[in-house]
Amino acid sequence: MERRYRTFFLYVEETPLLHLHPAVKLLALFTINLIAWLLEAPIPLLILLAALISSYVLLRVPLSRIRRFLLYALLVSQAVVVSYALGSRIPGRVVYAALPWGAYISDMTLLYMATMIMRFASMLVGSTLLLSAMRDVDVIYGLLSFKVPYTAAFAFNLAFRFSSLFLEDFKMIRDAMILRGAKLDEGGILQRARNYSRMGIPLTVIALRRMNELSYVLEIKGLGFKGRRTHLHEFEWSARDICAAILLLASLAVVALLRLTTSLLSFPGWPLA
Amino acid sequence: MSVRQAAITGVTAGLCLPLALFAIILVPIPGLPAASGFWIPAGFYFAMTLWFGVWGALGGHIATVLAMGYFSGYTLQIWLDGGLGDLIAPLVAYAIFKAVGARPDLKRRRDWVTWLIAVPVASLVCGLWVHTVNLMFGVITWPFWWVGVVTYLVGDSLAIFTVGTPLLKALTDYVKQSPMYVWRE
Q1: Nearest to B76 among A30, A167, A192 (CB)
Q2: What is the reported pTM?
Q3: Which residue from A87, A159, A218 is facing B144, i.e. has the nearest CB?
């Protein structure tokens, strides 16, 4: 049974990924996405996608995590299909349909569509896998590990904290306006959006007051104080973290090198070229 | 980054994040569930950027990345696409205001004209960015690129004018009392 803890991110406690150093988690997130972006060949992308899906089982992350994004994946796939079917000219051995404005659908068009869908799916599956082991504290300490200034990482953390406060303010202002006779849910979608946007002024006043108060509080607490800081959590680099980081960087370097110097990873790539 | 700048970024992001989630739910675009036809937070972070500079834009960027990722996965494409696009757009408007010496209180004719020009220009730059990124990731083809750019320009400008204009008109004088306001005479 998947146990969930409500921070901004919902993470799975059972996965060994959770114990990785925050910097490795962020590095993995970027590396997997970059590798998927660099790959343009269908078979290597298929291998990457299969490896990522298998990792869910190996790393004890429920595959149901991806279910939430299935509709989105389907809609992006539809966008890819429509866009390439109506607007591309990719030469192939067989042309299935030629359109009056010069675009045509060949066997290679279909293969390229599938490749682009697999590229997108690899990014989505890889990112969701890593997000299953990401807590907001990992994002903050991960950013610090990459030498992002503490105040900048702290600002990111404030976004998580303040979003729930503003959600409460939003509900409070909405209820107050409804009690005074405002009809926020009347009209079409755009009219409703305009009605809701009238809540902007009270919400912004609250935000501006909060901004002033927060800056004074942070000054008093010595956030801007120069010098070495201590932190609530200490994340040590283990041998496993170092190996994982080296492996990730080496994989990215190899893929980038192969993509730039050979045609193995360019469309149609190995073994179809 | 100073403490005040961190407060601007954090509070702007905190304000825009629920609004972004709300915009996606309230006015979805069929076919693009992580996008909205009326991007409510844009009006807010445009105003915050014109009042407080780059730190307001950074807050909008953080909110957009978190909100879009919530519905569409935290992928590199989402970050480069809408995330960076929504950082660039308010900065373009801010740069135009700086360049022509206009002020965000929209009291003078020059301020109004600048606002009316800066918003579509910023939305156009953002639309160009977003759909060029989509093109680079292979999600769309060239013939669909300009369709995306035009719809982005119209939708984003509409939201910024509707939400941002009353904020700037009603609250700039109030914001001037803040030590963080960037337009000192």
Answers
A1: A30
A2: 0.85
A3: A87
SS (H, E, C) chain A: CCCCCECCCECCCCCHHHHCCHHHHHHHHHHHHHHHHHCCCHHHHHHHHHHHHHHHHHCCCCCHHHHCCHHHHHHHHHHHHHHHHHHCECCCCCEEEECCCCCEEEHHHHHHHHHHHHHHHHHHHHHHHHHCCCCHHHHHHHHHHCCCCHHHHHHHHHHHHHHHHHHHHHHHHHHHHHHCCCCCCCCCHHHHHHHHHCCHHHHHHHHHHHHHHHHHHHHHCCCCCCCCCCCCCCCCCCHHHHHHHHHHHHHHHHHHHHHHHCCCCCCCCCCCC
> Is the Cα torsion angle B17, B23, B24, B29 positive or negative in sign?
negative
Length of chain B: 185
Per-residue pLDDT of chain A (273 residues; tens, 9 = 90+): 445 555 667 788 889 999 999 999 999 999 999 999 999 999 999 999 999 999 999 999 999 988 888 888 888 888 889 889 998 999 999 999 999 999 999 999 999 999 999 999 999 999 999 989 988 889 889 999 999 988 888 888 888 888 888 888 988 998 999 999 988 888 877 777 778 778 889 999 999 999 999 999 988 988 877 777 788 888 899 999 999 999 999 999 999 999 999 999 999 988 987
Q: How many CB atoms lie within 10 A of CB A43?
A: 17
Instruction: Quote the minimal CA–CA distance from B113 to chain A in Å.
Output: 23
Q: Which amino acid is at B132?
A: T
How far off is chain B from A243, nearest CA to CA, in Å?
Answer: 24
Flag if A200 and B167 touch (Cβ within 8 Å).
yes
Q: Which of residues 176-235 of A touch B (CB under 8 A)?
A: 189-190, 192-194, 196-198, 200-201, 203-205, 207-208, 210-212, 214-215, 218-219, 223-224
